[in-house]
Amino acid sequence: MASRTATELVHPDRGELRFTDVAAALSDPVRLAIVARLAQVAPDGELACGTFALPVSKSTQSGHFRTLREAGVIRQRDEGTRRLNRLRRDDLDALFPGLLDLAIAQGHRELSSWSAAEDARADAPAGGRTR
Amino acid sequence: MASRTATELVHPDRGELRFTDVAAALSDPVRLAIVARLAQVAPDGELACGTFALPVSKSTQSGHFRTLREAGVIRQRDEGTRRLNRLRRDDLDALFPGLLDLAIAQGHRELSSWSAAEDARADAPAGGRTR
């Protein structure tokens, strides 16, 4: 009997990647932030889904990872109870040179703006905090 | 009294352009084809909406032009009864270098595939035509 975490993770081959799907996957600030965080780990470095501090619910986050995987932006694999993610840089750079680097730069802007908002909340008096 | 064609055409300023909006605008094959056709006319060249032979209805086509304009990919202006379009290459190249050229290359692929499909239909015996 398959274990609960053994979902089959489908990935498009390089030849199946479409610019329209990749562009759609990159049209969301949370997904750009995920891409930027993955780019911070060394080439082929992997990060577990749980390690991304994203301003969205866990299920929304899962949907974003799935969108990125189905478009061919990331590879996912399960290791025990963790789902690990890495960028498909070779495939993307071969097909759409420069696109991933643009997305990474934009993702870093998103991360910075969230971080600045976080600092502003931390600096505010307790009564003024909104969460 | 305003004439029927004098719709105000709103354009985001360069500073208002967002990568997420531009990526979303470029995530559709018809919009990529529009971008590629506009790139064929000389820098700052303009094409009227009616001159694009696109495999979609006129109203769908209008929606695609509006999406491109609102994202900041094209500028539109009315001249008499014609609505003219041109790429915002300077703005896009300054903000997202390389993105427009990727989109143009992908758009040419779309145009080629439609053209090949058109040729195949033209070559087929009359009974076999599907339109």
Features:
homodimer; 131 residues; mainly alpha; Arc Repressor Mutant, subunit A; 3-stranded antiparallel β-sheet; 5 helices; 3 strands; globular; disordered N terminus
Radius of gyration of chain A: 16 Å
**Annotated CATH homologous superfamily of chain A:** Winged helix-like DNA-binding domain superfamily/Winged helix DNA-binding domain
Distance separating the two termini of chain A? 43 Å
Order of H and E elements of chain A: HHEHEEHH
What does the secondary structure layout of this molecule look like, with pairings?
2 copies of one chain form a homodimer.
Chain A: H1 19-25, H2 29-40, E1 47-48, H3 58-71, E2 74-79, E3 82-87, H4 89-95, H5 99-123
Antiparallel strand pairs in A: 1-3, 2-3
Organism (chains A, B): Rugosimonospora acidiphila
Keywords (chains A, B): DNA-binding, Transcription, Transcription regulation
Protein name (chains A, B): Helix-turn-helix transcriptional regulator
Structural features, described:
- Two copies of one chain form a homodimer.
- By secondary structure, chain A is mainly α.
- Chain A has a single domain (15-117), classed as Winged helix-like DNA-binding domain superfamily/Winged helix DNA-binding domain (Arc Repressor Mutant, subunit A, Orthogonal Bundle).
- Chain A has five helices and three strands.
- Chain A has helices spanning 19-25, 29-40, 58-71, 89-95, 99-123, and strands at 47-48, 74-79, 82-87.
- A three-stranded antiparallel β-sheet of chain A has the order 1-3-2.
- The longest helix of chain A is centred in the C-terminal third of the chain and has 25 residues, at 99-123.
- The radius of gyration of chain A is 16 Å and the shape is globular.
